[in-house]
Amino acid sequence: MARISVHEALGGGAVADVLLWRRWRAGVALVVTSSTFWHLFEHAGYNFLSFATYVLLLTVAILFFWGKSATLLNRPLPPLPDLEVSEESLSMAANETRAWINCGLSIAHDIAVSGNFKTFVRAIFVLWMISYIGSFFNFLTLTYICVLFSLSVPVFYERFQDQVNEQLSVARKLIQMLIEKLLGVLKEILMPTPKAKKTQ
Prior knowledge:
Blueprint: H1 6-9, H2 14-19, H3 24-43, H4 48-72, H5 87-112, H6 117-134, H7 139-159, H8 161-190
């Protein structure tokens, strides 16, 4: 199996550079910021809404007093960018959201209307796994763990790609065998085959 570029698989842009620690300052900033927020909300007991309100209150107060003192002391006003959301960025976000919703609806259609048994079992398994993992952590801790994994797994995979691919192919074959056995058992339970009547 040919080696693939992890950088290209991650999109090849600035996000890929951060996830692969090629922009190490941004990676460190992301780890420090997420660790700080996790500590503030999980251990220090802050509430997100009150914290966000205090930050906005402090920002507005600083900008107000900076603007007032700048006019009194003949200093430049605070440099604020144009605070507008462009129509193009909103359109891109709406298109991306629509694509994800349509994907979910097509899976639901496959399960409900088409009666696709494999898709049904996969959906049940994925939802059960999310529920099972979510029972161990609250949402904030799970998000923090995902951030840490996203900053460590791509680097690990890029360095040890051949070994990881070899182990994943073995695991995939094993999982496929188990899924086929499970599907066979479930089909026998849910859709029993009619037995031939005995002739006397």
